[in-house]
Amino acid sequence: MANKTADVVVLGAGPAGYVCAIRLAQLGKKVTIIDRDEIGGVCLNRGCIPSKALIYAGTMYEKTSHLETVGISVKGASLDMGKMNAWKETVVKKLTGGVAGLLKANGCEFLSGDAKFTGPKTLELKSKNETTILTFNTCVIAVGSRPTPLKGFEVDHDVILDSTSALSQTEKPESMLCIGGGYIGLELGTFYAKVGTKVTVVEAGPGLLGSVDPELTNVVKKNLEKRGVKLMIGVGVKSQVKTKKGVEVTFADGTKDTFSKVLVTIGRTPNSNDFGLDKAGVKVDSKGFITVDPQRRTNVPHLFAIGDIAGQPLLAHKGSKEGLVAADAIAGKKTVFDVLGMPAVIFTDPEIAVVGLTEFEAKEKGFTVKVGKFPFAANGRALSVVEPDGFVKMIGDAKTNRLLGVHIVGAEASNLIAEATLAIEMGATIDDLALTVHAHPTLPETLMEAADATLGHPIHIFLKKAATAPSPSANA
Predict the structure, then answer these.
(1) DSSP states of 342-404 as a string?
(2) How many other β-carbons are positioned within 10 Å of the β-carbon of residue 159?
(3) Is 106 exposed, middle or buried (0-12, 13-18, 19+ CB in 10 A)?
(4) Would you say 440 and 459 are in contact if contact means Cβ atoms under 8 Å apart?
(5) Which of 143, 269, 448, 472 is most buried (CB neighbours < 10 A)?
């Protein structure tokens, strides 16, 4: 057994951990980063990146059958899931290789193996060849989360899949049941529907996508149904039996159906049971998330936690931001995690992107709200790329015109949300967006037009109610 010392250890090399490690190195710290898996974590290897690569490929395949509208005929387009997955892996390897290179270039030491706390300042690291006791001064815990299991539907990665194995299918399933109508189930369900799989989504709750504004969800719902996706909302699953044809599933309402594959996507669980957190004295809440302060410090002063393990929202960019905050705090800088605008994106078709408060949340917080919407169908760029579905919905404080929330369902929503996030982060008013000149013809004009609609005087749609006069600032 070997012994080793380190200044700062980052446990986990996902988007939270590796960002934290690089920033720590930039601030002059000697950093050791540890992961039992590949550099890049779930996001780069088994989540964000591979799923979006496949979603893009699925969209391209589907478009081949819809190009006659613009005068292009593509006959006999074939699908090779094996090649599609091979291409996806090249994207993943390029990005993970790039991160590995950045860690090395910044002087970070990477150690591969299973690490567990044996005390508040010690880790036991088991690699292929040896066991090492690592003594450190500071540790950042960035160990992430894993798919939540569903009793009776244990994942075998053959016919019952989780999100990881769903991203590695080399043949198109004839049919698939997605258990869970959250973002993972709908994103992967959309991909498989686009490549020709008969998809059913079952959601035990009252609606799809949880806290997302139902107005946005309804647009996605209609498009899923147009693709032949069967939606079972308010219905749970009871049991399953594997047969020669696949998996026979019994639903809570007593009905049965058989599917080639079943995908379990009911959420994610923090990896708080695997790393000896109790030996370090770190407290977790009832759901297994580590409790942290605004600097991402745990109840043990020299131990920090970032990313999924530190609680909702479970977003890669939230973890990366936390990594930067923790690094600054460790380096002695004055810093806190104080984010006004945390965007969230769902890569359905059309995409959904949101930031800030929903209309309901704003009213719950006591705001008198003003709401404006602008449809993509009234935007020249959207029509010229055959993407007329969706709208931008803007929520503002009626008393001050401060922007409170932006909710988008439509083409390139994932890119459009950046402007809205910056606006909320900087405390912008609706007037600020309305007065900003947007290039024409572009999709971002929908934000400007939604701002005008919120103020009561849109140009490219007609409001049936009496339009209010432009605000004084708009006339300035």
Answers:
(1) --EEE-SSSEEEEEE--HHHHHHTT--EEEEEEEGGG-HHHHHTT---EEEEEEEETTT-BEE
(2) 17
(3) middle
(4) no
(5) 143
Looking from the CA of 126 toward its CB, the CA atoms found within 13 Å total 5
Residue 177 phi/psi, 5° resolution? -105, 125
* Percent of the chain's residues with pLDDT above 90: 94
Residue 246 reports pLDDT greater than 70: yes
Mean pLDDT of 199-213: 95
Does residue 465 have a pLDDT over 80? no
Separation of alpha carbons 389 and 413, rounded Å: 11
- Calculate ∠ Cα 165-169-175, nearest 5°: 100
Q: How far apart are the first and last CA of the chain?
A: 74
The per-residue pLDDT for range 133-192, each reduced to its tens digit, is 999 999 999 999 999 999 999 999 999 999 999 999 999 999 999 999 999 999 999 999
Contacting residues for 258 by C-beta, under 8 A, at least 6 apart: 175, 243, 245, 246, 247, 248, 249
**CB of 333 closer than 8 Å to CB of 345:** no
Pair 449, 460: CB distance under 8 Å = yes
Rg (C-alpha) for the chain, rounded Å, is 24
Q: Residue 84 — very low, low, confident or very high, per pLDDT cuts 50/70/90?
A: very high
* Residues 155, 159, 164, 168, Cα dihedral to 10°: 160
Q: Is 65 helix (H, G, I), strand (E, B) or coil?
A: coil
Q: What is the pLDDT of residue 1?
A: 79
Active-site hit among 438, 440, 457, 460: 440
Residues 165, 46: Cα–Cα separation, whole Å: 9
- State the pTM of this model: 0.94
Q: Residue 305: what are its φ and ψ, rounded to 5°? A: -140, 135
For this structure, is 440 an active site residue? yes
Q: What are phi and psi of 270, to 5 degrees?
A: -65, 145
What's the mean per-residue pLDDT of the chain?
A: 95
